[in-house]
Design a protein that fits this description.
Structural class: alpha/beta
InterPro entries: CheY-like_superfamily, NreC/VraR/RcsB-like_REC, Sig_transdc_resp-reg_C-effctor, Sig_transdc_resp-reg_receiver, Tscrpt_reg_LuxR_C, WalR-like
Pfam family, one: GerE
Number of helices: 11
Strand order of the largest sheet: 2-1-3-4-5
Largest sheet: 5 strands, parallel
GO molecular function: DNA binding
Shape: globular
Protein name: DNA-binding response regulator
Keywords: DNA-binding, Phosphoprotein, Transcription, Transcription regulation
Number of strands: 5
Length: about 220
């Protein structure tokens, strides 16, 4: 089955460009388009896309509020990939905190766009560690507590190691290779980390790691 994608951007040329890039792939299908976040929920319910590629800045409802609305009201929400011009935009960080699975730069090359959609569809986060560190420093919740916080203290030593590698942008396969363990073992550790942190996905776990002081954003 192809990965189905809903495009949401107030610029028709951006939507047309993304559609052309994605529909050139045999395993990706663009099932719909919208010009504003306010149209996302009815389209998601009707089309059931696997991934929503959504502009972070739109006139009526931006990508942050649209992300919150989808996750709040849709029983089995799609993966959300926010599309942005500037990776250090506060809107990007707020969208990630709201539950978006990753972000994609509008200047990305076609191969990077395709890779991003496939990656989030498979359940991996699309994070650029250096960018997330900068965003955490600039837009995080002020002073950070000591590195060992109640939430992270419940992690086992191996789970904490997996979280550190997640925060550096490693995929499950890369973590497995680094730790010399099986992919299923890593998947189990990641699931445990998410459950203990109360995180929806890897993105939320990584943001929590930086904002809590567990990872130093230097």
């Amino acid at each position: 089955m192809p990965v189905t994608v809903l495009l949401v951007d107030d610029e028709p040329l951006v939507r047309a460009g993304l559609r052309a890039v994605l529909e050139a792939q045999p395993d990706i299908e663009v099932v719909g388009e919208a010009a504003d976040g306010a149209a996302v929920i009815p389209l998601v319910r009707r089309l059931r896309p696997d991934v929503v590629a959504m502009d972070v800045r739109m006139p009526l409802m931006d990508g942050i509020e649209a992300t919150r609305a989808v996750l709040r009201t849709v029983a089995e929400p799609p993966k959300i990939l926010v599309v942005t011009t500037f990776e250090d935009d506060e809107y990007v960080y707020e969208a990630l905190r709201a539950g978006a699975d990753g972000f994609l730069l509008k200047r990305a090359r076609p191969a990077e766009i395709v890779h991003a959609v496939r990656l989030v569809a498979e359940g991996e986060s699309l994070l650029f560690p250096a960018s997330v560190r900068r965003l955490a420093v600039r837009y995080g919740d002020g002073a950070r507590p000591a590195p060992t916080t109640p939430a992270h203290a419940r992690l086992t030593e191996r789970e904490a190691e997996v979280l550190r590698l997640m925060a550096r942008g490693l995929s499950n396969a890369e973590i497995a290779a680094r730790l010399v363990v099986g992919a299923e073992t890593v998947k189990s550790h990641v699931s445990a980390v998410l459950a203990k942190l109360g995180a929806r996905d890897r993105t939320q776990a990584v943001i929590a790691a930086y904002e809590s002081g567990f990872m130093e954003p230097g």
